[in-house]
Amino acid sequence: MAGAIVALAACGSVAGCGRAGHPRATSYRPPFLPAGFVDHAGSGWRIAIPSTWKDASQKGPAVYAVVDPQAVDDFHAFANVVTEPFAGESDEYAKANEAGLRRDPRPHVESAREDLIDGDSTVILESRWAPGGASPTYQTMQAALASRGTGYVVTCAASANAFARYRSTCESVVRSFAVER
Fold first, then answer.
1. How far is CA 26 from the centre of its chain?
2. How many Å apart are CA 79 and CA 86, to the nearest integer?
3. pLDDT 10s per residue in the chain (181 long)?
4. DSSP states of 37-59
5. What domains, with CATH codes, occur in the chain?
């Protein structure tokens, strides 16, 4: 399960019904689509991305990936969605992914904050990755959700030097993520 969060870093709401015993916030309202963003839906999930970002030519393990065509510090900001089987709830999946990320020697987890995404309790993780060599250091913002036997990790990443400039974009991408119930 932690493999999804590691694999993706290296490289409105969806209609549905609630599950019995699912700890979903009843007062949750999906965020409005930010100006300049477009919706994209996959099998069991939905995400809002900047309208100028393009489909990634290399997706790796991601079921969906887009990149900003403008590079900053020789790094193209990106967003992606990775899935894997997971039978538990979003908060369990998020904590397991956080633990896996903290065990991985490549990233440095800079912050982990509990939050609600799509009405589910989860953790928003920010990590700094320093791959070395000619590859620039980059920062990720990630969240994990689980529904109907699938774990989903959404990631938004940008050059570490430019992350402050991309922070609001990444917040919008991550907070827009929704899964089918």
1. 23
2. 22
3. 444 444 444 433 333 333 344 455 566 677 788 899 999 999 999 999 999 999 998 889 999 999 999 999 999 999 999 999 999 999 999 999 999 999 999 999 999 999 999 999 999 999 999 887 778 899 999 999 999 999 999 999 999 999 999 999 999 999 999 999 8
4. EEEEEETTEEEEEETT-EE-S--
5. 3-14+38-179 (3.40.1000.10)
Q: What is the rounded CA–CA span in Å between residue 139 and residue 165?
A: 12
Instruction: Find the helix packing angle between 3-10 and 90-103, rounded to 10°.
Output: 60
Chain centre to alpha carbon of residue 181: 18
